[in-house]
Amino acid sequence: MKTPIAVTIAGSDSGGGAGIQADLKTFSALGVYGASVITALTAQNTLGVSGIHDVPPDFVAAQMGAVFSDLEVDAVKIGMLSRPEVIETVALGLDRYKLSTVVLDPVMVAASGDRLLVPEAVESLRSLLLPRALLITPNLPEAAALLDVAPASSVAEARAQAERLLAFGPKAVLVKGGHGEGPESVDVLLDADGFVELRAPRVVTRNTHGTGCTLSSAIAAGLAKGLGLRAAVEAAKDYLTRAIGRADELAIGRGHGPVHHFHAVWK
User: Fold this and answer.
1) Distance of alpha carbon 259 from its chain centroid, rounded?
2) Can you give the CATH number for the domain in which 182 is found?
3) d(CA 227, CA 32)
4) Which domain holds residue 99?
5) What CA–CA distance (Å, rounded) separates 169 from 31?
6) 262 in a structural domain
7) How far apart are CA 80 and CA 246, in angstroms?
8) Is 182 exposed, middle or buried (0-12, 13-18, 19+ CB in 10 A)?
9) Residue 211 domain-assigned?
């Protein structure tokens, strides 16, 4: 029986709550073997990001070659890619290894407000990676930045922005509503079959570090296990909602703590 395998291509969070670390925790919690391609190192904790060290593009390529030439990978999650040169390298790697089950989380700003993507990389993200993705998962500010408009303030506006993002070439778009207001967090999914709204009660907690990374990697985990896209998104939304709901059981750091990736395992 084949072991489901997912790979995360993203930045490292030294504090362990987001990035590569959150992705690998999510894969493990959901029963998927995780491998990684590290695109950047961050000096980061629950209070913010104090430094970013970009991995040279040739070494990103070397990591992709090592992983994809050996492992039979079922799904890929892409997160923090801070510079155009790294984005170009990843795009070439996706083509070289014929990777199509790709979940792209267009990470631009950390939960602390620190910018993780240089402004000149936004166009590279639009033109090189959006067309190669099965699904993109921007939050409200990221969707707005990709479109150079104001963030959506209603579900109707989020749907309209999802339609515009779909025109860039991904097979599907999930606009996440975690930055919105109201008693429910509403995510809008647009795929070949139309729109779906995924609703969950909004959890009041400051421990939301890594939510975007966790959701996108949970979707990739579902796809790696053979779920269809909508089923993978629904399962990931449920997993993240529970992980946020149990986040206050952890006491990590003095700022925005992580969600509880192992809420179903730890006693």
Assistant:
1) 14
2) 3.40.1190.20
3) 13
4) 5-249
5) 30
6) no
7) 26
8) exposed
9) yes
The pair phi, psi for residue 135, each rounded to 5°, is: -145, 140
Q: Is 185 part of a structural domain of the chain?
A: yes
Please state, in angstroms and rounded to a whole number, the distance separating the CA atoms of residues 244 and 208.
7
Q: How far apart are CA 19 and CA 78, in angstroms?
A: 10
139-to-41, 106, 144, 156 alpha-carbon distances in Å: 23, 9, 9, 15
Active site residues: 176, 208, 210-213
Tokens of 195: 């729109």
Tokens of 92: 């070439």
Strand, coil or helix: 129: helix
How far apart (Å, rounded) are the C-alpha atoms in residues 208 and 98? 34
pLDDT digits (tens, 9 = 90+) for 1-11: 899 999 999 99
Residue 219 and residue 210 in contact, taking contact as beta carbons nearer than 8 Å: no
pLDDT digits (tens, 9 = 90+) for 120-177: 788 999 999 999 999 999 999 999 989 999 999 999 999 999 999 999 999 999 999 8
Domain count, the chain: 1
CA distance 257 to 252: 6
Do residues 11 and 116 lie in contact, with contact meaning Cβ atoms separated by under 8 Å?
Answer: yes
Quote the tokens at residue 142: 């990221």
Instruction: Yes or no: say if 73 and 96 are a contact pair by the CB < 8 Å rule.
Output: no
Longest dimension (CA), the chain: 48
Residue 260 lies in a domain: no
Does this model's pTM top 0.85? My answer is yes
Token pair for residue 240? 């993240």
